[in-house]
């Protein structure tokens, strides 16, 4: 790893005398804060400023009690319009921009989830600000570390914008702990019309009893070496079941139709950092490594002893996955 310093400049500097505060966008699932937002709140705490939590959608008020259990939250803002229920970026962006414009907020923090990645650039465009995406470390309120070149280099980025917008890589920050609920002021704001006609039509959600890939402690991933969907399911599913693990896949496996694209791990998929990551039949392209190399323990099983995956693996086993994995599963 090597460090690169970049300056993101703006003609507008930090306003003198402005009281500093952080606005943090909190995603919810029912009455619970999502794991990625718990990590984003950790990054918000490290900024050292009072934090206002923003929750949107009809479930927002139901999650208020959960948010009150997070320390450093000084205020909660909710907007309960049903138009925010599916986090459409065309709807969420105008609301966030209106809260940030001409306000005391010097920082805006959101998880680098699909939701955050969708609307943060739009907020930046509306306010003429340059977001700093996918940060893995907070240096100060205007300086952050983020990966670049598929994680092969780390850039230290300093923003000179009047307000700093950041998205947070959840695997790089431990989730905040939930303590006792505190007495925090709650303000409800109305829907902000953005003039965009986008509407939610429908969604198809892949339902699984397995742990969520983004927050699982154990992940079993399969690659193109598993040949087809039938073999992928036959090899990966029993092992994941024995370990109560989430299932992941390389982009090659997803593109070949072995599994749903929601299971893709890598630079263009999900970034995970479980306690244990088992890579089965995955060669280890640089894009895949960018999504899993922060796992605490990496186990690689591949017949090619020259596969790049072995360069990051803590435990490597060279051999036929169609013989090794079933045997491993039976012995577990």
UniProtKB/TrEMBL annotation:
PROSITE patterns: ETF_ALPHA (PS00696). Its main location: mitochondrion. It is found in: Mitochondrion matrix. FAD binds at residues 224, 250-251, 264-268, 281-288, 302. Keywords: Electron transport, FAD, Flavoprotein, Mitochondrion, Transport. The keyword Mitochondrion applies. One of its GO terms (molecular function) is electron transfer activity. Its cofactor is FAD. PANTHER family: ELECTRON TRANSFER FLAVOPROTEIN ALPHA, ELECTRON TRANSFER FLAVOPROTEIN SUBUNIT ALPHA, MITOCHONDRIAL. Heterodimer of an alpha and a beta subunit. The electron transfer flavoprotein serves as a specific electron acceptor for several dehydrogenases, including five acyl-CoA dehydrogenases, glutaryl-CoA and sarcosine dehydrogenase. It transfers the electrons to the main mitochondrial respiratory chain via ETF-ubiquinone oxidoreductase (ETF dehydrogenase). Belongs to the ETF alpha-subunit/FixB family. This is Probable electron transfer flavoprotein subunit alpha.
